[in-house]
Amino acid sequence: MQAPPGPDSMLVMARGIGQGRGVALFTVLGMTLGAGLVQLPLVAFGLSSLVRASPLAFNLLRWAGAAYIVWLGFRLLLSSSATVAVDDNEALQPLAAAREGMIANLSNPWPLMFMVAFLPQFVDPHRGFVTLQLVLLGATQKITGVLVLGTYALASGAIGAWIMRHPRARLWQQRLAGLFIIGLGVRMVIGGSTSR
Fold first, then answer.
1. Is-contact 88 170, C-beta < 8 A?
2. What average pLDDT score do residues 85-97 get?
3. What is the Cα–Cα distance from 42 to 36, expressed in whole angstroms?
4. Per-residue pLDDT tens digits for 121-171
5. Which of 12, 104, 127, 138 is 20 to 30 A away from residue 170, measured at CA?
6. How many CB atoms lie within 10 A of CB 110?
7. What is the rounded distance in angstroms from the CA atom of residue 89 to the CA atom of residue 86?
8. Residue 195 in this model has a pLDDT that exceeds 60
9. Which value, to the nearest 10 degrees, does the dihedral of the CA atoms of residues 62, 77, 101, 159 take?
10. What span, in angstroms and rounded, lies between the C-alpha atoms of 40 and 88?
11. Which pLDDT belongs to residue 26?
12. What is the separation of C-alpha 62 from the centre of its chain, rounded to a whole number of angstroms?
């Protein structure tokens, strides 16, 4: 269920191609483990139902996420050629990449709504604490997210390694990745997606 491309996987692939495997992998850690530290307690303790019950809150969160994704895309799009030198493949620091991945995932309400709708189907109230079951199921979902998105990061990083050796290709790729990420933000506003 995590394999189909969505905003998270597309951002990871754009990062892998444009900024290298390491940046993409740290983006994945932010999207999964970092965001999970916030999302799992919300799901387990039922606070996310407040956002689910309020269409306005849901839409505000979705629009904020889309705006953030568009901002990331414009940052890539408007980068000058001086910022994409061949030896500058670590321009984005690992913690900054993880932070941006976490913000992108948290500001997209679909992963949280997916967890709220999907995980309770596997909870059995007769087998112990419901809260603990939800935390374990959510953690399993986040770990599979690390595996799936990590695969995207490694594959796109391999393509990015070739692009790093060709400065002109890298500049154009960075601009195309920026346009692609902006398109993802627009898609989040227009229709949204339940996939990663």
1. no
2. 65
3. 9
4. 787 778 878 788 888 999 999 999 999 999 999 998 888 777 767 767 667
5. 104
6. 21
7. 7
8. no
9. 130
10. 36
11. 96
12. 13
Q: Residue 124: left if φ>0, alpha if ψ -120 to 50, beta else—which one? A: beta
Please tell me the distance from the alpha carbon of residue 41 to that of residue 190, in angstroms, as a whole number. 29
Pick left, alpha or beta for residue 137 (phi over 0 → left; psi -120 to 50 → alpha; otherwise beta).
alpha
Which tokens is 44 given? 């387990």
Report the predicted TM-score, pTM, of the whole model to 2 decimal places.
Answer: 0.69
Q: What is the DSSP string of 4-62?
A: S--HHHHHHHHHHHHH-HHHHHHHHHIIIIIHHHHHHHHHHTTTHHHHHH-HHHHHHHH
Block residue for tokens 């995590």: 2
| Contact of 104 with 12, CB cutoff 8 Å | no
Instruction: Give me the amino acid identity at 98.
Output: A
Task: Residue 29: count other Cβ atoms within 10 Å of its Cβ.
Answer: 20
C-alpha 92: how far from chain center: 16
What is the structure's pLDDT at 46? 74
Under a CB-based contact definition with an 8 Å cutoff, are residues 190 and 69 in contact? no
Q: Is the dihedral of CA 29, 186, 20, 77 positive or negative?
A: negative
Phi and psi at residue 148, in whole multiples of 5°?
Answer: -70, -50
Q: What integer pLDDT is reported at residue 15 of this predicted model?
A: 86
Report yes or no: 196 and 113 within 8 Å, Cβ to Cβ.
Answer: no
pLDDT reported for residue 27: 95
Residue 123: half-sphere exposure toward Cβ, Cα within 13 Å: 20
Please give the C-alpha separations between residue 112 and each of 20, 136, 153, 193, in angstroms, as whole numbers. Answer: 28, 15, 22, 12
